[in-house]
């Protein structure tokens, strides 16, 4: 049976660069004969971060592995193709003054290269087969892969579900089907810069796109149903981040329910209700950034006896086993925090299980940091000051505005002195409970703070450490010397 093998050979030639094509080791016929004998030690559904890491490790140890990916444009998964990497590339281009068209082109070239590298990394392992087609369970051990009229059935001793998440499109009249409405996936590659952009949702995706498009020159309005953006953060941190966005020209319509979209000669008209009144804005494009839901549609989880949660995520235990002990789920599809590095850590837990060690579980995963890539970025880990006080800690706060940190000339060298650094410390034990860093290099600094928290390094030790100069980390010498209770 010929499943997509020629299809992905063609895709290689069209979209991958020359070294990547040459690195593909085996001919289509060899892959096909491999695939025809369709029992595998491990079947991974979805080419995401966790699944591909596991597939490569198992394949290199000699196990027969199939990785099923529904789209040849998604080898490597969401992050390198339509998520973290293209958005951060566009943000970097916007920050360094590139035009939008040039930025889209550079970003497309980058993602094409990464897609090729991802494909070749798995395809060059002899015992790993990449099958390009949509997967659906037939039963608990059997998965059907379909691509056009082609069908292939594979079986696996172990199966890992790694299908990720997809955008939620709220049920607002006029939204679905409008050519002016985009998800992050298609807005990344759109070549025409919208003059007026409405962003529906002020979460991670919404804030990053708002910041980026404002820097490219769009008039951006963020609409959210909640009374404030970044509502989980401390008020002073959220206010500082909001001010950065307002300075970039972003407008906010908060506590608003969008009730309909109407196409007009001037553009898409969004009517919204706020308090007792109704108002509207007219824009050229709308980005729907209202959250992402686990991608389980059409997977046939019921046929496999795999249970899901009320929210539609694949239900897993602390070792990421589903209700079927030989089926695991990793990454966004299992619910919880949606970050690439969580999917990667999921793969470590599953690898640990498959090796029979049982030393890891999701319960030991303390302090997951995250970064919102506005300009400058906002990075966070652990408790906010508000949470720490609510939980009854004797709280000490060390905080400074970046502009006031004398011993951090890096910010002044770069001309980016906006933001603040804030540490929340347990006054009794000197342990760091949390940090919010709205600062140049915050996406790097937060990893040092997280490591300190995980290993019980005290705030005093972090303050008195030797750091290179000029760097952003040396700000810790000064910020951690300031304190209030
Ligand atoms: C715009 C945007 C920006 C982001 N920025 C960041 C960031 O800066 N940092 C960060 O850590 N995270 C970021 N994220 C989140 C991050 O991309 C995800 O958490 C991560 O990619 C999830 O990986 P995963 O392993 O769950 O699966 P994914 O990488 O989502 O892979 C799932 C794969 O499964 C395939 N698939 C789905 N159904 C089937 C099926 N039935 N058969 C076969 N294949 C199937 C899909 O095509 C996809 O390739 C961002 C997300 C978005 C949307
Ligand atoms: N830098 C990063 O690490 C990064 C970047 C982008 C995305 N991500 C991941 O992707 C996930 C999804 O991002 P997201 O921004 O789509 O979701 P999100 O959950 O972060 O935010 C969704 C926002 O949409 C709002 N919303 C929902 N329905 C609405 C409606 N009908 N009208 C107005 N507002 C509405 C919510 O109030 C919320 O503020 C994030 O949770 C994050 O884990 C991470």
From TrEMBL:
GO MF, any single term: NAD(P)H dehydrogenase (quinone) activity
Signal peptide interval: none
Database matches in SUPFAM superfamilies: FAD/NAD(P)-binding domain, FAD/NAD-linked reductases, dimerisation (C-terminal) domain
Chain segments annotated as coiled-coil in the UniProt record: none
Domain (FAD/NAD(P)-binding): residue spans on this chain: 40-344
PANTHER family from the UniProt entry: MERCURIC REDUCTASE (PTHR43014), PYRIDINE NUCLEOTIDE-DISULFIDE OXIDOREDUCTASE RCLA-RELATED (PTHR43014:SF4)
Protein name (record): FAD-dependent oxidoreductase
Species in which this protein is naturally found: Amycolatopsis carbonis
């Amino acid at each position: 049976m010929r499943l997509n093998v020629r299809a992905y050979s063609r895709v290689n030639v069209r979209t991958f660069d020359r070294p990547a094509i040459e690195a593909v080791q085996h001919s289509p016929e060899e892959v096909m004969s491999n695939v025809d004998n369709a029992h595998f030690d491990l079947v991974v559904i979805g080419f995401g971060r966790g699944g591909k890491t596991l597939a490569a490790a198992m394949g290199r140890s000699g196990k027969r592995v199939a990785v099923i990916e529904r789209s040849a444009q998604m080898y490597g998964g969401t992050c390198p193709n339509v998520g973290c990497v293209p958005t951060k590339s566009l943000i970097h281009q916007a920050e360094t003054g590139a035009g939008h068209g040039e930025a889209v082109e550079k970003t497309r070239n980058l993602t094409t290269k990464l897609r090729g590298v991802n494909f070749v990394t798995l395809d060059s392992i002899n015992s790993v087969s990449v099958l390009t087609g949509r997967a659906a369970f037939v039963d608990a051990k059997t998965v059907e892969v379909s691509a056009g009229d082609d069908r292939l059935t594979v079986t696996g001793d172990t199966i890992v579900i790694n299908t990720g998440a997809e955008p939620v499109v709220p049920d607002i009249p006029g939204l679905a089907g409008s050519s002016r409405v985009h998800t992050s996936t298609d807005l990344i590659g759109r070549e025409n810069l919208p003059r007026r952009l409405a962003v529906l949702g002020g979460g991670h995706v919404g804030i990053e796109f708002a910041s980026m498009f404002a820097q490219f020159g769009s008039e951006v309005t963020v609409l959210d149903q909640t009374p404030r953006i970044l509502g989980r953060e401390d008020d002073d941190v959220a206010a500082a981040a909001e001010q950065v966005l307002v300075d970039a020209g972003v407008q906010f319509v908060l506590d608003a329910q969008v009730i309909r979209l109407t196409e007009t000669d001037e553009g898409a008209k969004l009517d919204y209700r706020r308090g007792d009144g109704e108002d509207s804005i007219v824009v050229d494009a709308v980005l729907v950034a209202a959250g992402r839901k686990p991608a389980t549609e059409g997977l046939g989880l019921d046929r496999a006896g795999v249970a899901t949660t009320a929210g539609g995520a694949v239900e897993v235990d602390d070792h990421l086993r589903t209700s079927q002990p030989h089926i695991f789920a990793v990454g966004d599809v299992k619910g919880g925090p949606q970050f690439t590095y969580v999917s990667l850590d999921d793969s470590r837990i599953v690898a640990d299980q498959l090796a029979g060690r049982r030393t890891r579980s999701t319960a030991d995963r303390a302090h997951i940091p995250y970064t919102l890539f506005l300009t400058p970025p906002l990075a966070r880990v652990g408790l906010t000051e508000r949470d720490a006080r609510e939980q009854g800690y004797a709280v000490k706060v060390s905080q400074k505005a970046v502009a006031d940190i004398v011993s951090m000339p890096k910010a002044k060298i770069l001309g980016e002195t906006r933001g603040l650094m804030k540490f929340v410390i347990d006054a009794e034990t000197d342990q760091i409970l949390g940090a919010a860093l709205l600062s140049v290099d915050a996406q790097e600094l937060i990893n040092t703070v997280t490591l300190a928290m995980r290993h019980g390094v005290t705030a005093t030790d972090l303050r008195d450490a030797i750091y290179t100069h000029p760097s952003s980390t040396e700000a810790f010498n000064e910020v951690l010397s300031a304190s209030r209770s």
